[in-house]
Amino acid sequence: MIVESSLNPKQATLRDTVLAGDYFMKVVKAGQTVRILDLEGNQAADTLFYNANDPAERYSAIDTIREQGNVYLTAGSKLLSDQGNVMLEIVADTCGRHDTVGGACATESNTVRYSIDKKCMHACRDSWLLAVAENDHFGLTKRDITHNINFFMNVPITEEGGLTFADGISGAGKYVEMKAHQDVIVLISNCPQLNNPCNAYNPTPIEVLVWE
Questions:
Q1: Hey, which residues does 54 pair with through a beta bridge?
Q2: How far apart are CA 128 and CA 45, in angstroms?
Q3: What is the pLDDT of residues 80-108, one digit of tens each?
Q4: What is the pLDDT, as a whole number, of residue 76?
Q5: Is residue 210 a contact partner of residue 28, using CB atoms and an 8 Å limit?
Q6: Which ranges of 38-106 does DSSP label H, i.e. alpha helix?
Q7: 71-100 exposure pattern, b = at least 16 Cβ within 10 A, e = fewer
Q8: Cα angle, residue 66 at apex, residues 61 and 162 outer, rounded to 5°
Q9: Which one, of 13, 24, 19, lies nearest residue 40 by Cα?
Q10: CA–CA gap between residue 46 and residue 162 (Å, rounded)
């Protein structure tokens, strides 16, 4: 569902550009709104959420899909934790659909899906591992890397129940905006994937904005 935001980017209290292959890791407070902006189009933003006051509570794809009865996310979707609490709610979305079942790329999956020579290529899991290592004050480790959302990514489900990777449905300037219902750690890997069309084989920057 397409819903545009009324927020003015010039009034954002935080505005960070995240290069392809880089990460964003910051706390968004309850009541704040965070926007992920696809600057050039067809980019994928692999995102994890944790309760900033108790990181053992984190986003759950299983609970979110079950409660909303839809494998795709858009405006109105509530992102639930593994404890059944609403962490964030999507309040604006100009893309229309986001994936929450396709998972994140890793060196291991690059090898299985593509070829052994792809193993050394950078992947979203690497970005997350670097993020938790460089931000140990959050108390997260590689054991905490779990279900993620692939904002802007197009992962159609076949009639047989399989997953396919297709050309992105996002365009330059598209965004998704969420209001936090609790203090959350937002951990984004701006996907560097070169082997499937999730970012048109050309990874580009995204922008993250936060409003009070």
A1: none
A2: 12
A3: 999 999 999 999 999 999 999 988 886 66
A4: 97
A5: yes
A6: 61-68
A7: bbbbbebbbbbbeeeebbbbbbbbbbbbbb
A8: 65
A9: 19
A10: 20
In this predicted structure, what is the pLDDT of residue 67? 94
Q: Which long-range contacts (CB under 8 A, 24 or more apart) does 75-80 make?
A: 75/1, 75/2, 75/3, 76/1, 76/3, 79/49, 79/149, 79/178
Residues β-bridged to residue 47: 149, 188
The continuous run of DSSP H or E covering 110 comes out as helix 107-113
- Amino acid found at 172: A
Local structure of 151: helix, strand or coil: strand
Helix, strand counts (H, E) of the chain: 3, 12
Quick: pLDDT tens for 136-181.
999 999 999 999 999 998 888 877 777 777 777 899 999 999 999 9
What pTM was computed for the model?
0.92
Contact in structure between 54 and 212 (CB atoms under 8 Å): no
Q: Where are the beta strands (DSSP E) in the chain?
A: 14-18, 23-28, 33-38, 45-51, 72-73, 78-80, 86-93, 98-99, 149-151, 174-180, 184-190, 206-211
End-to-end Cα distance, the chain? 24
Cβ–Cβ < 8 Å for 184, 79: no
